Amino acid sequence: MTEIPDGGVDGRVVILVDDVLYSGRTVRAALDALAAYGRPRTVQLAVLVDRGHRELPIRADYVGKNMPTSRRESVAVRLREIDGADGVLIVSPEASPAGAAAGTADPGDRP
Ligand SMILES: O=P(O)(O)OC[C@H]1O[C@H](OP(=O)(O)OP(=O)(O)O)[C@H](O)[C@@H]1O
Ligand SMILES: O=c1cc[nH]c(=O)[nH]1
């Protein structure tokens, strides 16, 4: 659901917030959608996890954790209020014979 504050976004500082930043295409779509509501003074981006592999010239202003990943992996953020516990999972297709398994994120560099 989209909620725009009274007075709209013209001249305001808008901070887009997302859990994972990957290709940048979701942020690009959000910027496109935001333009329909007005002209903010500035738009900033905050993400909990930046996992790299950008496909567009988009960067975050605020990053909770830079988490280098393989393209084959996927990253899932869990929030206590929604999922019952906070966490970041790196899901690797090679991690189990079943084809997918979740492991606790290692803050170290990954190939
Ligand atoms: O930078 P990108 O390549 O666009 O990927 C990042 C987006 O992917 C995820 O959303 P997803 O569409 O998977 O849905 P979800 O939020 O329901 O997980 C995530 O929440 C971001 O919005
Ligand atoms: O790994 C990824 C890629 C895109 N979006 C996610 O939530 N995780």
From TrEMBL:
Residues 9-65 form the Phosphoribosyltransferase domain. Pfam families: Pribosyltran. Keywords: Glycosyltransferase, Transferase. GO terms for molecular function: uracil phosphoribosyltransferase activity. Its EC number is 2.4.2.9. NCBIfam families: PRK05205.1-5. This is PyrR bifunctional protein. The lineage of its organism: Bacteria, Bacillati, Actinomycetota, Actinomycetes, Frankiales. The gene is pyrR.
